[in-house]
Amino acid sequence: MDLMSLAILVGAGLIAISVLTSLISFRVGAPLLLVFLGVGLLAGEDGIGGIDFDNAGLAYFVGSIALAIILFDSGFETRWQTVKAAAWPSLTLATVGVVLTTGLVGGVAHFAFGMPPLESLLIGAIVSSTDAAAVFFLLRVGGINIRERVRSVLEIESGSNDPMAIFLTITLVELIVGGVSADGMSWDLARSFVLQMGVGVLGGLAGGWLIVQAVNRIDLEQGLYPIIVVSLALCLFGGVSMLGGSGFLAVYVAGMFAGNSRLNGARSLRRFQSGLTWLCQITMFLMLGLLATPSEFLDIAPQAIALALFLTLVGRPLAIWLCLMPFGFTRSETAFIAWVGLRGAVSILLAILPLIAGFPDGQIFFNTAFIIVLVSLLVQGWTIKPMARRLGLIVPPRIGPVDRVELELPGGASHELVAYRTVAGSPVTLGERIPRWARPSLIVRNGQSMRLHKAGRVETGDLVLIFTSPDRLPLLDRLFASPTELKVKDREFYGDFTLAPDAAIGKLAETYGFAPPPQDAGLTVCDVLKREFKGRVETGDRLAYGPLELIVRAAADDKIDEIGLALEPSRSGRPGLFRRSGRA
């Protein structure tokens, strides 16, 4: 009993410490997952905690469950619009990119460690995928507002490349243990790939449909819906794995299917899964930190650090460049996607497999992967935002923060009840009228509830409750947003003046004294931009046109809402390491 109580005390204490030390991450800009890993290392046998934990099998079991939940939530939070914007480049990176990275890193590992080819490729496969938890945290929580297409590629790639890395790692371990000849290896790899990915995708679609039906058709207590969703996701993970498919791919696909379907209580499901995912990330990083023995790192540190630097500076950039060549990304975008190649818990988790399989040099695989992850989090994790700013990919905010609370309505209603806290200087307090379709249902002022006709004009500090459809929330956000001023560099991003999308290109050319191409006569500014970008436009796209530069200020679903005009393209040109016409 005392031992059990001590285990509970230590485990819960480490989780609490990890949560509290997250404040350090936000204050000094340290990658949060590095903080979690550091707590595990400090609590381990070489740290001040002195906890001796060496159960690789248990760590892999718990880590696999945690990773399955994280991938399900990653898919659940991925919108169809994101998939539509970046499906093919992302999937190319998640498959071909992982294979290329495996081969490049494996080749260097062969010379660095003097291992046979298969063992060298195994090291490459272990560190070939980016970490979904690390990437999602930096992009969604870290306050980095980057170009939409680049964000979409990174999110989908990080969520979908784990199954490929897991497949390659497990297959290579089986080939090494089974002693399969090189002649039969290609056929075994192809057959295993088709089976795992095919069963994974089909199982994921079926599992996602089942989860949607269970949530929408079964009448349960509200608190039980998140439990049944996570339980079904883990059942799917186990069942597909038993059938020979990729359980990790299945839960990611199921999460994407369910998250983009109409679900009763979707908001409460997201809140529950967000907290559970954080718990899984903390648990996984803590356990992997406890499993490590830093005193053993010194023996292989030079080779592992060299391999990490090759992966960061050569291997991934080369693989990314080759994969993205057909998709029209600029050099700045390609460079940033290559830099956001954060390695994390997945690589360390996969490095446990050689230990479980009984490899004589199994500890080398684990220690190498651990060092590579540490280097990645230290070098890349700390420099993502400066790199995005240097490459000119950060989109400056057009509006200030919004104090908004979304309240869920029962029965899967198509409208939402949102509550805005008005702030001084927001458009609505300066006389901007609230549209008829968003008339407030209730206004709370100084603790008193009142109707609109009694409250009169909205005042600073009011709590305004509005029923509206979700697609109109961005419009309301602009009314209730805090005031913000465009800085000089922001004006360079958005342009000096605003143009209407339907402005005639001929009239614009006449105003600024240049002759447009004959084929553009009769076209609007919007028509020209859509033609040049082949119908796919997003905020920040720039086009040099005569002595001017046309800039997409606001766009959604390939529809241009606002266009900016820069009079001096050389001044408003792209900041960054690379300069090129077209996309910034």
UniProtKB/TrEMBL annotation:
Lipid bilayer topology: Multi-pass membrane protein
Tell me the domain of life.
Answer: Bacteria
Question: Which InterPro entries has this protein been placed in?
Answer: Cation/H_exchanger_TM, Na+/solute_symporter_sf
Q: What is its main location?
A: membrane
Q: Where in the cell is it found?
A: Cell membrane
Q: Please state every residue range assigned to the domain named Cation/H+ exchanger transmembrane.
A: 16-389
TM segment ranges: 6-26, 57-76, 88-109, 121-143, 193-212, 224-240, 275-292, 304-324, 336-358, 364-384
Q: Which of UniProt's keywords are assigned here? A: Antiport, Cell membrane, Ion transport, Membrane, Transmembrane, Transmembrane helix, Transport
Presence of the UniProt keyword Transferase in the record: no
NCBIfam families from the entry? PRK05326.1-1 (NF003714), PRK05326.1-2 (NF003715), PRK05326.1-3 (NF003716)
According to UniProt, the name of this protein is: Potassium/proton antiporter
Organism the protein comes from: Skermanella cutis
